[in-house]
Amino acid sequence: MIKVVIADDQTIVRAGFAALLGAQADITVVGEAGDGREAVQLAMAQRPDVVVMDIRMPGMDGIEATRRILAQPGMEALRVLVLTTFDIDEYVYDALAVGASGFLLKDATAEELVSAVRVVARGDALLAPQVTGRLVREFAKQRRSRPQAPPALGSLTARENEVLVLMAGGLSNAEIAARLVVSEHTVKTHVARVFTKLGLRDRAQAVMLAYESGLVVPGESLS
To answer: Does this model's pTM top 0.85?
Structure first.
């Protein structure tokens, strides 16, 4: 079972998400929070697999709550799925920077929400690459002045570097395997080594690093 905590300051939204997710055979909702502080407390008490986190909440917002949750010992496997309105939230970049594994638009369909929770729970890539890629590129472009590659990037092999670039482009392991003409198992091995060498917890952080370091340039083709 995938254990989920839902954090949103709107009671009706929380109830709707809880009813939808709780109706799934492989998902159980173990708590609901009305603000970030309560979300942190619930995450510590319930140890869920996924926290569905709104960004804009009174008191402690979703960004700070995400940072505090993921900074706790023993929370390495927990994943945070951030909810955003996209058009007005300029905080998505910050949410990813503090460790969120992906995000979902608040106008997503029921099927998309359920799928997103499952994708994040199994530790897969950022959600909706066509949206997240656009956001990451835009915010990275706004925030970067003179990108400096972290020294650890130099420890990557040529193939690991190539895999990192393709991850930053939103490609799945299967798509990377097809592009490089290797097995998916081989890609998974390269991905694991990239995470270990760069001290990353998941693909979301890998994407952030690739853009912030200048390894991938916004708008540049991956071909």
So the answer is: no
